[in-house]
Structures are given as C-alpha cells and as structure tokens.
Amino acid sequence: MSRTGFTIAIATLAACGLAAAAPLAIHIHGDNAMFQVLVSPGTVGSDDFVLQLMTGDGSPLLAKQATLILSLPERGIEPLERKATRGADGYWHLSDVPLPHPGRWHLRVDAVMAGSRKITLEDEFDVPAR
Fold first, then answer.
1. pLDDT at residue 26 in the model
2. Number of domain units in the chain
3. Is residue 111 included in any domain, yes or no?
C-alpha cells in the first residue's frame, strides 16, 4: 500500500470512529419554542442528555426548570421523569439516564418559565441496540 493510500485508510477509520461517537440529536419545534436534545452515546445502556432550550427565533429560553420524560410504550415502559440541572454552558444536563431497550422511545421535555408557565414539546427517537 502506498503512503497516500495508508493515510487515506487511517483518515477513513478515524472519521468512522468520530461518527460513531457523535451524539444522537433530536430537534423539536413548537409554536413558541424549539428544543435541541442531544443523547450520548444514543444507544442502549446509560446515556447522558443535554437539553438546549430556545425561543422560536433561536435565542436562549430562560427556563426556571427543565424536566425530561421518557417512555417506551412498545415494551410497556411507563414514563420515566428526571429533572435536569442547568450547566455553566446555559444548557440543561442529565447524566446516567437508563435506556434499557432498543426501540422507538417517546420523549417529552417540560420547561417551566417565570410565572409557572410551562412549555412542553414532544417527539420520538430510535435507540439502536449496541
């Protein structure tokens, strides 16, 4: 194998490894808000979630509290509710969230605003087996 071929092979393998490490991203739009949810690693097991809450124009949504609710109806897994913690980056974080089975999970994010107004957005996402 030529040196150029070897370099291309290494670059390809590195790119494949980086792609596999990329978090699962779910983008949810509502009338007055949009939420970007990052799930890492995005497979069966223990996952970390980052909730990026934004207004309809993309500026940060100033929530007082954020809650993640997950369920897997096809497996009879009832809603699992976890409170998120605001990080220094301004996003909401959850660590070690169990995703015990592959399948089409239902995701709901509740954001509590000033005056106890709540914004809720929902979507579904697929969790592959390891």
1. 97
2. 1
3. yes
